[in-house]
């Protein structure tokens, strides 16, 4: 994934088009509101230009002086940490996992609800760009998110699928998570194709999600058996 090079760290001045564009006016507001505004614009900015983009260019995009950004965020690292919390972590809702574990509902129904919520609220163009830029920048955002949220999603899906189908799972955590990645990775890559590659747009989102979920549920017992066999050969 390529960042816009004229705004990367160490790059030259903004392009002529950016220099000629009028600055956005920043109205008077309370400090908390101003910080929230700067944070929202920063998350949009870094999603477009990458995490290595300069705060000088961010300030220009916000229509403020660079020193104003540092009044609210003591360093670029502090700003990026708040972008991570607000734009990457916050869209995920813990209640989704609570509902995913609610065994009063059929498992496939729970999966459908979970991934519709996750796709709509998390796997947006902005979120995906931020996450991929974070991975390319070798920042801690992507690994931290995987450990804090994705691993729990994977484990929940696999445990609930095994309970629903009365299937024995491999004992190793890594193999269990790989089974979960079969579905989560497919849904995530579908979102990447749709939002970033502008492909896979001819079929409705609901049908694609249903297809991935149905394939996962149908093949789950075979995947678990294969994972147990792999575990037995190591």
Outline:
The protein contains eleven helices and no strands.
Q: Average pLDDT value?
A: 89
Number of helices: 11
Structural class: mainly alpha
Helical residues, percent: 55-70%
Question: What percentage of amino acids are in beta strands?
Answer: under 5%
Number of domains: 2
SSE run = HHHHHHHHHHH
| Overall number of strands | 0
Distance between the termini: 36 Å
Instruction: Profile the largest sheet.
Output: none
Shape, per Cα inertia axes: elongated
**Rg (CA only):** 21 Å
Q: Low-confidence segments, ≥5 residues, pLDDT <50? A: 5-22
Describe the structure.
The protein is an all-alpha fold. The chain folds into two domains: 5-83, Homeodomain-like (Arc Repressor Mutant, subunit A), CATH 1.10.10.60; 91-232. It has eleven helices and no strands. The protein has helices at residues 16-20, 31-49, 55-62, 66-72, 76-89, 94-100, 107-121, 125-136, 141-165, 173-195, 205-232. Helix 6 (94-100) runs antiparallel to helix 7 (107-121). The longest helix has 28 residues, at 205-232. It is elongated, with a radius of gyration of 21 Å. It starts with 15 loop residues before the first helix and ends with a helix. Mean pLDDT is 89; it is low at 5-22.
Topology:
Elements: H1 16-20, H2 31-49, H3 55-62, H4 66-72, H5 76-89, H6 94-100, H7 107-121, H8 125-136, H9 141-165, H10 173-195, H11 205-232
Helix pairs in contact: 2-5, 2-8, 3-4, 6-7, 7-11, 9-10, 10-11
């Amino acid at each position: 994934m390529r960042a816009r090079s004229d705004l990367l760290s160490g790059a030259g001045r903004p392009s002529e088009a950016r220099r000629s564009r009028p600055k956005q006016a920043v109205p008077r507001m309370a400090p908390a509101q101003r910080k929230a505004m700067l944070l929202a614009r920063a998350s949009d900015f870094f999603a477009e230009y990458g995490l290595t983009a300069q705060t000088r260019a961010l300030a220009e995009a916000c229509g403020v002086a660079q020193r104003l950004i540092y009044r609210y965020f003591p360093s670029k690292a502090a700003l990026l940490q708040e972008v991570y919390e607000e734009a990457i972590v916050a869209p995920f809702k813990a209640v989704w996992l609570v509902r995913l574990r609610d065994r009063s509902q059929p498992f496939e129904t729970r999966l459908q609800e979970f991934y519709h919520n996750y796709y709509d609220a998390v796997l947006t163009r902005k979120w995906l760009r931020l996450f991929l830029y974070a991975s390319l920048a070798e920042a801690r955002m992507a690994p931290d998110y995987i450990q804090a949220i994705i691993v729990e999603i994977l484990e929940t899906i696999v445990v609930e699928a095994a309970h629903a189908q009365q299937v024995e799972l491999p004992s190793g955590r890594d193999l269990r998570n790989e089974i979960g990645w079969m579905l989560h990775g497919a849904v995530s890559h579908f979102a990447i194709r749709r939002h970033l590659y502008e492909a896979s747009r001819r079929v409705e989102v609901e049908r694609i999600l249903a297809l991935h979920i149905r394939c996962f549920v149908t093949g789950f017992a075979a995947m678990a058996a294969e994972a147990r066999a792999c575990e037995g050969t190591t």
